[in-house]
Write a structure and sequence with these properties.
Radius of gyration: 19 Å
Shape: globular
Largest sheet: 6 strands, parallel
Strand content: 15-25%
Strand order of the largest sheet: 8-7-6-9-10-11
Bound molecules: phenylalanine
Number of strands: 11
Number of helices: 14
Order of helices and strands: HEEEHEHHEHHEHEHEEHEHEHHHH
């Protein structure tokens, strides 16, 4: 309980939901709504405890506030987490019941928070939530994955340019080849990079075979001898040990919440002369695409998202010229915009 109160203290709102009939347990964190109503994906994952799920939701919701702010999108940060368990993992019907129950929870929040795909929630699950509420975005046919991948690709390009290199010919490891990492691997290949992938799922092995790519064991991914790493799976990737073992020069990936300990990790990366591009800047493609769609009812092209990410990363790198890490520069930009909104 004390833990939950501490977590709630970092947020505007922490909502806990359960549904007796389906066994749904879910958390919705609302971080900062000074720039607009909260938006953010919902993830489906197993957690050791409710407090850990709430803590994840809180950190991810904060990331969404920063993401919307840096990219100049008029929304606030929120995030949903559905706690996965053995029953939900093995029984699709039960999972779908829980997804509909979750949709009804969104309705109970009064339409304030709208949500979309994230880790463990693809357009297929979004479609199920949409059976009961319009507050689910990123349904079947959404280009959220390719748009996010395009944003990562242009950030890799910008990062290499800063190092005086071109993307073509570089060795890039994509960690996690799901909704975003999969399209990213294809886009990087099309841009003439040498792509390696790491993903323990059967889909990872299948993609490696299909595209003829080297498949790196998960435990070797972060110390692979490559030019760049693109983490596109879970968060909390770079702790002190991982940073000490890195052999790349550039990191830009789609995973949310990559740095264990935030700014200190960003400083440690800079000290190792690794150019780290902040996750909440790099992975904004879906946020641009999904919120624009919700606002206008139109279908902006992947290119609109790509152009926005390209402009923001250029601005962040310009700010970093004052001797800041790109992470510090991006935080500064985000905080400025959040404060302006009051
Ligand atoms: N979950 C994704 C993200 O973190 C995509 C998303 C953005 C989903 C905005 C809903 C709203 O950016």
């Amino acid at each position: 309980m004390a833990e939950l109160i501490e977590i709630a203290g970092r947020l505007e709102g922490l909502h806990l939901f359960s549904d007796r009939a389906s066994g749904l347990r879910a958390v919705i964190a609302v971080h900062d709504t000074r720039r607009g109503p909260p938006r953010g994906g919902t993830r489906l994952r197993a957690y050791p405890s409710l407090a850990e799920a709430a803590d994840d939701a809180a950190r991810l919701a904060q990331g969404m506030s920063y993401k919307f702010a840096v990219h100049g999108i008029p929304y606030g940060g929120g995030k949903g987490v559905i706690l996965q368990d053995a029953a939900g993992a093995s029984d699709r019907d039960l999972l779908e019941e829980r997804l509909r129950a979750y949709g009804r929870c969104l309705e109970r929040l009064g339409g304030h928070f709208a949500t979309g795909p994230d880790y463990g929630i693809t357009s297929r699950e979004v479609d199920v939530i949409r059976e009961v509420t319009q507050l689910a975005i990123g349904e079947h046919g959404s280009q959220a994955g390719p748009a996010t991948a395009a944003g990562v690709r242009v950030c890799l390009e910008a990062g290499f340019a800063r190092l005086g290199l071109e993307l073509a010919g570089r060795r890039i490891l994509v960690q996690g080849v799901g909704t975003v990492g999969g399209p990213l691997a294809r886009q990087l290949l099309a841009a003439d990079a040498t792509v390696l992938i790491s993903d323990p799922s059967p889909a990872g092995a299948a993609l490696a075979t299909e595209l003829g790519l080297e498949l790196v064991e998960p435990q070797d991914a972060l110390r692979a001898d490559v030019d760049a790493l693109a983490p596109c799976a879970t968060g909390q990737v770079f702790d002190a040990e991982a940073i000490a073992n890195l052999r790349c020069r550039l990191i830009a990936g789609a995973a949310n919440d990559q740095l264990v300990g935030g700014s200190a990790a960003a400083e440690a990366l800079a000290a190792r002369e690794v150019l780290y591009l902040p996750d909440f800047v790099v992975n904004g493609g879906a946020a641009v695409l999904l919120t624009a769609r919700l606002e206008r009812g139109s279908e902006p092209e992947v290119q609109i998202a790509e152009a926005r990410i390209r402009a923001t990363i250029a601005e962040v790198l310009r700010r970093a010229d004052r001797g800041l890490t790109p992470y510090a520069a991006a935080l500064e930009l985000a905080e400025e915009r959040l404060a302006q909104a009051v």
